[in-house]
Specification:
This protein is an alpha/beta fold. It is 44% helix and 15% strand. It binds adenosine-5'-triphosphate (ATP) and magnesium ion.
Length: 215
């Protein structure tokens, strides 16, 4: 019933990585009936989950804006959650996704260029909100943050430039364990060692905080 979309036209901010980890967490840890929609022509998240062995993540590739607009509501009726992995461009597909989402989950890398790209993504979100009476709710988080950098300053800049969006407290840090997951068709919950379990804790905290924001 609930559609959560990972959007930001900036490439490489972790839309696909977060989508796969969120879908996995909802299915394996929260026992929620969840569908992953891969709306990116690169097909990174669908190829990733196809290779998974322990947990089956239902996945559908839907690239065209018309198909997204038409099919997402029908699909959502059959699931507790639908997670949409958005494309890496400011495209009509992103617009269509925002018209069908309850919550736009926006990963932002805490660097100058990426903070600007978040404002571009927010522009599309606001257009959808003005047509849909406030939906989707905009929720941002800092992703791929490098430990030791001035995250608080970056976060304050991000918030001031994007009124109307909520910035979550949880930060996902840059970690080799996360970078390794897609190549192994795995998630951080499948990888042993302390770095992976630290990342797993960050994701769990992030997802709980995000779900509290659902409209
Ligand atoms: N927290 C992290 N730590 C280390 N590497 C990460 C992290 N998050 C993502 N990555 C890596 O960064 C790269 C980009 O991530 P991902 O593909 O999820 O981004 P994306 O926003 O979906 O990109 P695109 O816009 O191209 O679809 C990948 O190689 C991924 O493994
Ligand atoms: Mg992607």
């Amino acid at each position: 019933m609930t559609v959560i979309s990972l959007v930001n036209q900036k490439g490489g901010v972790s839309k696909s990585t977060t989508s796969v980890h969120l879908a996995y967490w909802l299915i394996a840890k929260k026992k929620q009936k969840t569908l992953l929609i891969d709306a990116d022509s690169q097909r990174s998240s669908s190829l990733w989950v196809e290779g998974m062995e322990d947990v089956e993540i239902p996945c559908k590739v839907i690239g065209s804006p018309d198909d997204l607009l038409e099919q997402v509501p029908d699909l959502a009726a059959d699931y507790d959650y639908v997670i949409v992995d958005g494309p890496a461009s400011l495209s009509e597909a992103t617009r269509a996704i925002l018209f069908r989402s309850d919550l736009a989950f926006i990963p932002v890398q805490p660097t100058g260029v990426d903070l600007r790209s978040a404002s571009d993504a927010m522009r599309l979100v606001k257009q959808a909100q003005s047509v849909r009476g406030g939906l989707p709710k905009a929720v941002m988080f800092l992703s791929r943050a490098v430990k030791g950098t001035k995250l608080k300053d970056e976060a304050i800049v991000l918030l001031s430039k994007n009124p109307g969006a909520i910035l979550l407290n949880t930060v996902i840090h840059q970690k080799q364990a996360i970078a390794d997951t897609s190549g192994q068709s795995a998630t951080v919950w499948d990888i042993s060692g302390r770095p992976a379990s630290e990342s797993a804790s960050e994701y769990e905290k992030l997802f709980k905080e995000m779900l509290e924001q659902l409209p």
